[in-house]
Amino acid sequence: MNKEQTNTDNEHIRLRFPPSPTGKIHIGNIRTALFNWLWARKKGGELVLRIEDTDQERSNREFEDIIIQELEWLGLDVDEGPNQGGEHGPYRQSERLDIYKKYRDKLLDNDKAYKCYCTPEELEEMRDKARKKGEMPRYDGRCRNLSSSEQQAKEEAGKEPVIRFKTPVSDKEIVVKDQIRGDVSFDSSVLDDFVIYKSDGMPTYNFAVVIDDALMDITDVIRGEDHLSNTPKQILLYKALDFEIPRFAHLPLILDENKAKLKKRSGEDTVYVGEFRKKGYLPEALFNFLALLGWSPPEEEEILNREEIIQGFSLEDVNKSAAVFDIEKLNWMNGKYIRDADLDQIVELSLPYLREAGYIEDENVSSRQLEKLKKIIEVGRTGVDYLAQIPEETELFFTGLEFEDRQKAQEEFQGSEVELVFKTLIEKLESLETLNPAAVNSIFNEMREELPVGARTIYHPVRLALTGEESGPEMGNIIYILGIEEVKQRLENALQLAD
Questions:
Q1: How confident is the model at residue 266 (pLDDT cuts 50, 70, 90)?
Q2: Residue 264 designated active-site
């Protein structure tokens, strides 16, 4: 075959997401998975999950489970993979070693690869000599034409060879036809005879990925820009093995707020997907946010549901320039999703955080307690960016009333005007047919019109008496949650404190 694919509207496409299970999954990786998923769903194609676990020292099945967990949390379902099975398995590279050996031997038999016995010290010496001459540090090909007897002698001396690909001298220019960047040309003279098999018997990334993509019938390879430099090597391998070359699309890098490459780091601004899940970011919000990291929807909308993103997504609209991971924008977006979500969903997701804070002791919440929790969380969600903030935002509804400066509070509650405000508020609350925030706000408006006191005297002493704080949620929400009897008791206690 030995030909590159061209895009047609009615062609059945296949894509893949091939993470390495060497750590928790990073935002950059999950954005790549998302774009592959979107393109597969937009085109009615298939998405394959392949686990690239040939790094024997660092690969861990626990990390594989985490990868699958985060994909499922974001709703990125795959059509084939380790858990789903399929006709193109196995889907772990560690289970495909016999396949790689077959194609390694094919290249060796066809004189397109060779054994190299150079030691690390010899390789470094080559690079040093090249640097001193002002040349590119690279392998000089000294093992390219070793005779069988020379190879045998080296192996008898205990040297374990790597396998190097014979980079063709005929390919002067290698052109990557990129669906995002257009044609990207590489001078083949910058490529040396690169390693395709390590001395430990494991294939290198560039070799294994070509074999896997070809045998799994992958038509489109969508991956990060950092892989662009690998693509010329892979194209040469596709040609050498007479495989059809897939279409490539290299996504822009993701930068942090300082325009530096987004790194895997710990702390408040961590970029591991699991940390956002643990903090109480909604998957719908993160899905929406990640879709906009490098892709501009046609209508420039920012809040889009899953189906709208699928329908609007196109590789043609993916930017060439880097995307900025703006945590403030994510927080704004997630906060909006929290406020717009079904209240029962937010209550269910908030309960673990309230239990961890010690505000809920019982594992099973009674129906009466649940009704109060709904009121509290309904108010609390208006002021949070993510659900882990719910306990702090709603603390005043779970803890006992305390005044930070008792003497100052006592002075605040003194005087006939404050007593008039408190008693009027109690009377009006007791006359209500239905207690809700809107009705409470109407009472405060009436009091401003009717009472011969200033607005501060109406609001400030009441808030302090009910919450012990000088600022916080709206008074309508506070009284709605506390209930008339609790409000009455706290106001009366404040007047007693003033005596």
A1: very low
A2: yes
